[in-house]
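Exercise 3.2. Students should predict the tertiary structure of the chain below and write it as structure tokens, then compare their answer with the key that follows.

Predict this chain's 3D structure.
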Amino acid sequence: MRWVVFLRAVNVGKANRCQPASIAKELSKFGVVNIGAVGTFVVREDVSKSALRAAIARKLPFKCEIMICPARDIIKLTSKDPFSRQPSGPNIVRFVSVLAERPGIRSDLHQTSNIKSQTSQLPPLPLSLPSDDDWLLKIIAIQDRFVLGLYRRQMKAISYLGKIEKKIGVAATTPNWNTIEKIAKILCE
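Answer key:
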């Protein structure tokens, strides 16, 4: 099966530093393609999820959450434009938070974050923070392990991304929609 891998909190600030391009090269037997500098990879060869997770973990000089999604899930996510009815412009970023697991499902396997999983209900959507009238972050949908939303290009908006994890109770990493589209394009080549 082909996969997409997202590493949580890699190369942000001075912590958890690594070279994703080198990792991709070292894992070339799996057909790994590096996407950017924050630990996002497309895996083109057929490999088991557990073997892939172990191989990536061995290449990292630190522990981090390794989120692995079937390639078909990314292709399905991008098959329709979930942002078609949302505001756009240079000051609005469309994003997808990739969750470590589906909300409401408790799994301690490979859990390295300190986010406490919970089985509470998901927040009603759309969810606008801090408020509907003056939002800096807006969650518009939750599809399986993907939280889709928008945030305004303001420093304060970044703090609201961390609140997604707390509201849902699952660790997440957040690439922008352009990155997700780039991944889908590579998968469809």
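Discussion points: The first helix runs from residue 20 to 26. The first strand starts at residue 3 and ends at 7.
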